[in-house]
Amino acid sequence: MSVSTSIGLALGFAIDRAFGDPRRWHPVAGFGSAALALERVTYRDARVAGVVHEVVAVGSVLALGRVVGRGGWPVVALATWTVLGGTSLARTGRRMADALESGDIAAARALLPALCGRDPEYLDADGLARAALESIAENTSDATVAPLFWGAVAGVPGLLGYRAVNTLDAMIGYRNARYLRFGWAAARVDDLANLVPARLAGALTVVLAPLLGGSAVGALAAWRRDAGAHPSPNAGVAEASAAGALGIRLGGPTRYEHGTELRPVLGSGRAPEVRDLRRAVLLSELVQLGAVLVAVAGAGVLSPRGGGAEPSAFRP
Known about the structure:
Function: Converts cobyric acid to cobinamide by the addition of aminopropanol on the F carboxylic group.
Helix content: 55-70%
Radius of gyration: 19 Å
Strand content: under 5%
Main location: membrane
Structural class: mainly alpha
Order of helices and strands: HHHHHHHHHHHEEH
Transmembrane segments: 200-223, 280-302
Protein name: Cobalamin biosynthesis protein CobD
Membrane topology: Multi-pass membrane protein
Number of helices: 12
Shape: globular
């Protein structure tokens, strides 16, 4: 069944490249609605309640993936398309670049919430470009590399389970008054789920940087020197390696709705400019392509019985 998994991953990636995210009835949005309804029942201001919420929500998705995964490569392809977000990420990045290059700051500010949770009203053109660039670097790993990795490891349960973990982190993995304790489990599980994929994304960035005139040496140096200073053990790898590859400097004051955070400096180049955004999108697309090639080639090794078709392929 490893061949079935490989075929499904490749086909699902191709469908995402052709069509992007499903425009209606997106299963991830459906999961988000279900998780919100579950939260109304499970919420308590305690870590234990958050653990229960995570186990029920993610466990249900893993069980579903176990059942539907018996459908072979067509189901793997559909699940892959469902969980990938790389094409929509690149398209949004290009639209942001178009708006900034034409001087339409209002349009660029309107696009930013589709990429990240920062407050766009306080950002100029270069600030918007930096925010978009950092988000593209991080989400290249989260939206493409990680789901493909887990699809290769565990077939359909891996694909759906990863997306459930990542979605819950985006919903409740915050250090604010409501979610500091309840969202703790969601944030920690997401960190663990992305530990290997983020480093795969970093490695692909190093290897592929020269294809767009970037620096493999700079990407590796920034990763090794700066990634550990980032508050996220995984986003730091993706952002630092991208900064080094593009010869720019990321980080600094970062304004969110809850306030301003001072992010560590990643990379040793100049401050990012609008023109760097298109290069970041191209780098993202190269990393995405590299990730699917690695996943397809590695499916037979990482998931020898693939796709959830056999009991041993299910790895919760």
